[in-house]
Amino acid sequence: xxxxxxxxxxxxxxxxxxxxxxxxxxxxxxxxxxxxxxxxxxxxxxxxxxxxxxxxxxxxxxxxxxxxxxxxxxxxxxxxxxxxxxxxxxxxxxxxxxxxxxxxxxxxxxxxxxxxxxxxxxxxxxxxxxxxxxxxxxxxxxxxxxxxxxxxxxxxxxxxxxxxxxxxxxxxxxxxxxxxxxxxxxxxxxxxxxxxxxxxxxxxxxxxxxxxxxxxxxxxxxxxxxxxxxxxxxxxxxxxxxxxxxxxxxxxxxxxxxxxxxxxxxxxxxxxxxxxxxxxxxxxxxxxxxxxxxxxxxxxxxxxxxxxxxx
Length: 311
What we know:
Blueprint lengths: L2 H14 L26 E3 L8 E3 L10 E6 L10 E11 L5 E4 L6 E4 L2 H6 L1 H7 L7 E6 L15 E12 L9 E3 L8 E4 L5 E4 L10 E8 L9 E10 L5 E4 H4 L3 E4 L5 H7 L7 E6 L17 E10 L1
Antiparallel strand pairs: 1-2, 3-7, 4-5, 4-6, 4-8, 7-8, 9-12, 10-11, 12-16, 13-14, 13-15, 13-17, 16-17
């Protein structure tokens, strides 16, 4: 999810986590929720591809609970659990009808219909799972009262969301898969311990003058873009001394994050690499945490990163 949904969904999770919707039944149809009668006045006019529909509704629109329903059914396949829906959104101020944002002319948003969304917001999950591709849903988001610190009150918002497509979520690997690559001499060496965890040795390795991004295993999956969200396992050590300062292997849980939301050495070093790859990164401090460092992650850093999935 990007842009508008990235702002709205966290708040909706808090509003809906304690109620609103039963778990979706097998072969579900879209489930409405909330004060749906307040959406009865909504009228849509089709304006063509890559354009938001014309939207008319009675103003002011004010809801106390997140409210959602299909207002125009599509003719495509029904959206299934664990798929990723491509959606476009146009959002309005519920008080005066002014447009807050319109993503129809841009690349589609991605909405993952996974267990995290199901447990956090059954209202939203159940409305999308079972809806047909091509459908348009209306989502009314409650406003906010003025805060004690002097923040202004916020009116309800109305979102009209069109489901453009739905497809199965990309597979996430358990470990790297691909062809082994022999790295050039002079780089940190990497071996696996008896648990399959990479162990990095930095003995005799010179400080880097530029970022080094070296495949150890060349995966055969799709190439990673800077704007993607990736799922990885990784180990990080300080080049000075080789002390491990971070490892996803310690927690037993893969890490998932936007590639453009991490240190520059990761963003630059992993862009263009392929899913299934194991990548050795030797990162100058200027592309890591600078002179100050962050905890034990000081100076030049070395990572081994297994790229297991992308979305």
